[in-house]
User: Which sequence fits this backbone?
């Protein structure tokens, strides 16, 4: 890996963290309340290694086969610090077993059927001694209502929440959404809507949903101002040509 690229990753991380701190400060929050996920779905293992050297410790993949490939490539390297991988993309039921035990958090549970399938596979793996604990998941919500986006509609989450919380093979840790691109005001309303829905579900069901996964390269500062606890940053982390001011 070119040393210049490594230097670029490191310098960009410093700027990203500074911008995160400024956005959080405007909301009366601090950096220790937020997890930065470096979305590595478009880069190779060498780029992930460069990001690890720059200080990143959590990565996100949207394809199970890439999750398998990268975790295998990094496993057992004594020179690397501990890192984790999350599954952030759409998950098909026939790929669940590839994700369980490799992804620390599944961000994309977008239907009751998928939640039930992950729960069932996880219970089976736990009973077989192949998995240590239930899978930590986030419920994907299509807050903006865009037809192109997957996930529960807010009304569907309200109706299904009781059943979701009772599934023994998963632990629902919070909610995830994506905002329409190109409009910061709409993004803000989307992220605020996710936070308000989380607060409503916590109140109505007596549960804790501490995680809000929202905010990407174009809108992470707005997301942090509106309560995000996990931001998923790809191009701004790995692409030296992506504008970072």
Assistant:
């Amino acid at each position: 890996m070119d040393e210049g690229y490594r230097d670029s990753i490191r310098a960009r991380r410093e700027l990203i963290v500074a911008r995160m701190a400024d956005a959080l400060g405007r909301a009366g929050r601090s950096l220790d309340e937020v997890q930065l996920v470096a979305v590595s779905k478009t880069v190779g293992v060498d780029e992930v290694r460069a990001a690890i050297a720059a200080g990143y410790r959590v990565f996100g993949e949207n394809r199970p086969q890439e999750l398998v490939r990268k975790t295998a490539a990094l496993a057992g390297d004594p020179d690397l610090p501990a890192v984790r991988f999350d599954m952030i993309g759409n998950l098909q039921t026939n790929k669940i077993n590839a994700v369980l035990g490799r992804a620390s958090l599944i961000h994309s549970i977008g239907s009751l059927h998928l939640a039930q399938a992950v729960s069932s596979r996880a219970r089976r793996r736990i009973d077989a001694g192949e998995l240590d604990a239930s899978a930590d998941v986030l419920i994907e919500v299509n807050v903006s209502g865009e037809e192109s986006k997957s996930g529960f509609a807010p009304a569907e989450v309200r109706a299904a929440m009781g059943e979701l919380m009772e599934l023994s093979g998963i632990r629902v840790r919070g909610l995830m959404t994506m905002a329409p691109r190109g409009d910061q005001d709409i993004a803000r309303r989307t992220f605020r809507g996710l936070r308000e829905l989380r607060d409503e579900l916590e109140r109505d069901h007596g549960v804790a949903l501490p995680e809000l996964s929202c905010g990407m390269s174009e809108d992470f500062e707005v997301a942090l101002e509106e309560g995000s606890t996990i931001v998923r940053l790809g191009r701004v982390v790995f692409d030296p040509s992506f504008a970072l001011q």
User: Anything to note?
Assistant: The chain has a mean pLDDT of 96. The chain has one domain: 3-238.
